[in-house]
Automatic annotation (TrEMBL):
The enzyme's E.C. designation: 1.1.1.85
Pfam families, per database record: Iso_dh (PF00180)
GO molecular function: 3-isopropylmalate dehydrogenase activity; magnesium ion binding; NAD binding
Localisation: Cytoplasm
Root EC class: oxidoreductase
One example of a Gene Ontology biological process annotation: L-leucine biosynthetic process
Descriptive protein name: 3-isopropylmalate dehydrogenase
Location of the Isopropylmalate dehydrogenase-like domain: 2-351
Site (Important for catalysis): 135, 190
SUPFAM superfamilies: Isocitrate/Isopropylmalate dehydrogenase-like
Catalyzed reactions: (2R,3S)-3-isopropylmalate + NAD(+) = 4-methyl-2-oxopentanoate + CO2 + NADH
InterPro entries xrefs: IsoCit/isopropylmalate_DH_CS, IsoPropMal-DH-like_dom, Isopropylmalate_DH
Main location (coarse class): cytoplasm
Amino acid sequence: MKIAVLPGDGIGPEIVDEAVKVLKVLDLPFQLDEAKVGGAAFDAHGHPLPEHTLKLAMDSDAVLFGSVGDWKYDKLERHLRPEQAILGLRKNMGLFANFRPAICYPQLTHASSLKPELVAGLDILIIRELTGDIYFGQPRGRREAPDGEFKGAPEAFDTMRYSRPEIERIAHVAFQAARKRNKRVTSVDKANVLETFQFWKDVVTEVHAQYPDIELDHMYVDNAAMQLVKAPKKFDVLFTGNMFGDILSDAAAMLTGSIGMLPSASLNAKGQGLYEPSHGSAPDIAGKGVANPLATILSAAMMLRFSLNQEEAASRIERAVQAVLEQGLRTPDIFSEGTRKVGTVEMGEAVVAALKAQ
Ligand code: NAD
Ligand code: IPM
Ligand code: MN
């Protein structure tokens, strides 16, 4: 089982270290190969996604990714910025299906910024299309406004687009995932304004005809944002495009207590996957030893389940995380009265200890 380990920037190396410790206790035949990515790779090799890093990822069964980005790179030309590394990995590996499960563990009901009764028992699966939409549409750039009131003025533009096969394949993923859950899919769009998302809605409706056992409803993205904080438990599978999924998954993260709890899996058609926390490099807390490593550890569990066919090991990790929460250990982001505040390393080592104790 070849795993490419790409820690990246900011808190990336701190949280990936803990996930690697957890993997190592499992005593499975892993080959872990590490490479630089993001700002760290730019500093060392002049590019955020060097050829050898991309090749290592492409040749592996799975990628364990930390996070990339730092304000100090914001002035670089776009193609050299750290974020291009994760976008390049997603595109080059064809990782079109992004799973972001937002689960509120019973121990963290009081860590959420919402009232406990709204989040108790929450279990939503966000499925985000990851290689299309305005993220990758061409053309994009800067120019003089070609027409309108501000004709001739400098302007910037991006292209929002989705092709039929791109929508079809992710719709199948969403319906099939719903089959293993409560059989309800909410497709989130902006069909009332955007042609791209009217097309999305039409194609999703067509694909749905093949899944008569699944309940489908459609919701505009603005309403979805509201419903997520009003009555989040009404969702089962929340299914949407790349940009809306980016935004809604951060909002959903807070229902679980912290963005430091939200793992993710990004899969391609070959079953290869990249596993990363849904959060970023958190430059504001990097180097302080306080980042929550659980989203990354839970992403490693998803990696075992989805790419490495190790269901038992995956659920062992998930049980160990629950055990540690049960012991009352909390990084500052999920701390509440009556629990014990710990740092990144202590949290990771507690998961390791809980695994050994099973
Ligand atoms: P962020 O997710 O890094 O941080 C947002 C807030 O959440 C911060 O206050 C941070 O301290 C907190 N936070 C995030 N992860 C945490 C954790 N594990 N434990 C405790 N607190 C945590 O988002 P941002 O500040 O908007 O972006 C910072 C950088 O990260 C930017 O360069 C951005 O582009 C990049 N980014 C990268 C990825 C990725 O690598 N996939 C994802 C999102 C953002
Ligand atoms: C995420 C991040 C990325 C995204 C950035 C860093 C490119 O926010 O993984 O959610 O927008 O997809
Ligand atoms: Mn994001």
